[in-house]
Design a protein that fits this description.
- The structure holds two protein chains of two kinds.
- Chain A contains 16 helices and two strands.
- By secondary structure, chain A is mainly alpha-helical.
- In chain A, about 65% of the residues lie in helices and about 0% in strands.
- Chain B is elongated.
- The chains are: A mainly alpha, B mainly alpha.
């Protein structure tokens, strides 16, 4: 849900004591960063508005808001606010704490056509902000809310800067166009490709097409019926080709939303919330989704397409054959 | 006696049979999973990316998500966006890979001294040197230069460790 400003202020007013405490702690830790209480409070409100007051969700309880505020990386945020305002001490501290890391990320990401130093300089310029709007310098730091770590945020900023530089050096198009059609769009659905030979002698083209259409439609329905976290896991695994190990790492943090969703009913999680997620655990999650999809897929073919069990098996067989033929064609092309 | 032996054998056979049945079922389950996995993979690759109505996710949301810092309530709209938005999903994928790669290839962090001089260079390019932004101006914010030097040295020594631990966040 989206709350009007006055109502939001009312909801957040129940947490004023906590905001004051968080500010006092930060100010005691870094008295020279020159961050005003009002600026700090406004930023916390902006963060809460952005993350907690989401459309179609009930208004968060006071406890939830307090938890949210307590979880913010307020020290990092305080420094970022100081930097956004151009405070010298905050900048020195940022440079001292994070430049080495920033350089390391840039060096790791930079390709031969983009210099790592150039990336770092670009990021610093963005962080400081050279654009002036209504007399205010637009520092990139002002967009950081403290919800994640500042280093995680910096990684993302470096990544974006690198993409921009790469695009500039290649006269390339937008990020959308650059990443679009890589993977999803470019790959053709092997299922949709008409297969030749094999079972073709037994089944005429019309029947084959009927099965293909029914298979594609049932898969679409089965996929649509999945929960968001299940769809995302499938997309990470099959489209982005994240390895099980990489997914396991992604959900390693106990608070990871994907992990949270998959283990929300797990007793094991309640007993050991910090337990490591192994590749086998991710595989089990995938298997559960496959089982769910298969059940929905079969049911859809039975009820909507009116197919018998033997015909459903034929659908699966044909689709698998099509995929294999698509793979072989691709291998021949590569060779 | 013979009856007892016979009954024990029957029960042994039953156990073996149950074991075999379980194995067959597991194999069938694995095969079905493999098939449906293949089908899903092909289906998803052919599926056109939906263009979400909302704008792309900003850096703050992406990094918070990859960090695993969001609660279920906060993550739900972001996951919904990621399901429909291929560019944003790709960024989260690459950032997740990056975090892992950085952990696998730990490097020594450059020392604090050149960092300060590079900061000076940077600030000079922004024309801030005229504001008195140098080491002296910066150090003037601390109680004493001695304390700063000590702090520098401690930070420098612990920076590698701190960096590694923060990467594990």
């Amino acid at each position: 849900m989206t709350l009007p400003e006055n109502q939001l202020a009312k909801v957040l007013s129940g947490c004023t004591d906590l905001v004051e405490k968080l500010y006092a702690d930060c100010a005691a830790e870094a008295p020279n960063f020159g961050v005003e209480f009002e600026t700090f409070q406004n930023t916390l409100e902006r963060a809460a508005r952005k993350y907690l007051f989401v459309p179609d969700a009930p208004t968060p309880a006071n406890e939830e808001i307090r938890q949210f505020l307590n979880d913010l990386q307020t020290s990092d945020l305080f420094m970022a606010l100081g930097c956004a305002a151009g405070n010298e001490r905050a900048w020195w501290e940022f440079d001292h704490q994070h430049r080495g890391y920033l350089e390391r990320v840039a060096r790791h990401l930079a390709s031969s056509d983009v210099n790592a130093d150039e990336v770092v300089d670009t990021v610093y310029v963005e962080l400081y902000g050279t654009r002036i709007v209504d007399g205010v310098r637009m520092s990139k730091f002002a967009t950081y809310t403290g919800r994640g770590s500042i280093r995680g945020w910096l990684r993302t900023v470096v990544w974006h800067a690198l993409v921009d530089l790469h695009r500039a050096s290649h006269d390339e198009v937008s990020l959308d166009e650059m990443t679009e059609n890589v993977g999803e769009g470019a790959a053709q659905a092997a299922i949709a490709q008409p297969a030749k030979g094999g079972e073709g002698e037994m089944l005429d083209t019309i029947v084959r097409e009927r099965y293909r259409k029914a298979t594609a439609s049932a898969l679409e329905t089965a996929f649509s019926s999945l929960d968001t976290h299940e769809k995302l896991l499938l997309l990470y695994y099959h489209i982005e080709e994240l390895k099980l190990r990489e997914i396991a790492r992604m959900v390693e943090v106990p608070t990871s939303p994907l992990r949270g969703w998959f283990q929300r009913k797990s007793e094991k999680r309640e007993q050991a919330p910090d337990a490591r997620v192994h590749e086998s655990t991710v595989m089990r999650w995938l298997e559960k989704i496959y089982a769910k999809v298969l059940k929905s897929f079969r049911s859809e073919l039975k009820t909507s397409a009116g197919l018998k069990d033997s015909e459903i098996e034929m659908c699966i067989k044909l689709a698998t054959q099509d995929i294999l033929q698509g793979d072989i064609k691709q291998h021949i092309k590569i060779a | 006696m013979r009856l007892q032996k016979f009954s024990a054998k029957i029960s042994e056979c039953g156990v073996n049979l149950a074991g075999e049945l379980k194995k067959v079922k597991q194999e069938q389950f694995n095969q079905e999973n493999q098939q449906i996995g293949q089908l899903l993979g092909a289906f998803l690759k052919g599926k056109k990316s939906e263009t979400p109505a909302a704008a792309h996710l900003d850096e703050d949301s992406i990094s918070a998500f990859v960090d695993g810092a969001l609660s279920n309530r906060e993550a739900e709209p972001i996951m919904k966006h990621l399901v429909g938005c291929s560019p944003c999903r790709k960024i989260t994928t690459q950032l997740a890979r990056l975090a892992e790669e950085l952990n696998e290839q730990p490097e020594a962090i450059s020392s604090a001294a050149p960092q300060t001089s590079r900061l000076q260079q940077f600030l000079q390019t922004l024309g801030l040197s005229s504001l008195g932004l140098g080491d002296e101006a910066v150090f003037a914010h601390n109680d004493s230069a001695e304390e700063n030097k000590k702090e520098d040295s401690e930070n420098q020594n612990s920076e590698d460790q701190a960096d590694d631990s923060s990467l594990k966040e």
